[in-house]
Write a structure and sequence with these properties.
With 252 residues, the chain is an all-alpha fold. Helices cover 71% and strands 0% of the residues. The chain is built from twelve helices and no strands. It has helices at 2-12, 24-43, 46-51, 53-77, 89-94, 97-111, 119-126, 140-151, 153-178, 183-186, 189-200, 213-247. Helix 2 (24-43) runs antiparallel to helix 4 (53-77).
Length: 252
Amino acid sequence: MLKTRKKLYRQLDIEATADERLSFLNKVLIGFILTATVVTVLSTENTIRELLPRSFDTLDLIFGVVFSAEYIARLWVAKDSPTYSGKWGRLRYAFSPIAIIDMLAVLPFWLSIGMGDSFLLRLVRMTRILALAKLGRYSSALANIVGAIQSRKYELLISLCTALLAMLASATVLYGLEGGNNPESFGSIPRALWWGVATLTTVGYGDVFPITVMGKIFAGVFALAGIGIIALPTGILAGAFADAINKAPTED
């Protein structure tokens, strides 16, 4: 049993081998993940689903069983990983981010049993797209990028807080300037916040806009400020990606 577990661990965990290459089992699982995502997307189109209703149900069953078996297998071999060795290794693995993603990819299948065709069932099916997140464990480059972003989390948090404060400030000012003349769009700060989000993120839908002279002046100021605010996380992420590329091992 121990020998079987160690062999399965080497097949499942990409870090179990010296060259960190994908095993045959890993390639099969990647194929299932991509296929499950495509099937989930196609199943939301009624005209396609009505053509092959039993096929989609059968595929749902196959994916549910495969991903459930994978989750149980990874939980079983977790003790062979240096990171999760020890008495409570499996428990620590079960609460790790990647294991939670695995569990969330499996839950929609079991939760959808016996639901019938309802809004809740459609919502549960949509969460199957989370299976794509499982691909992260197979890419060392992606892991390096995630690590680099985590190293800049405080800078990103500060830029997020700055953006939120700027949106609130812009919505408050436009509410004061436009509320009386344009109550439908700027009659309250929550209403004006939609304009703030669309403007400071430089999306500019154009469905909400000021009509007074002062409102237009301040709107222009905030729109220009939005360019700089959006540039803050962009520069931080660019630096994180550069760090990830520099730290990534190069092939001779």
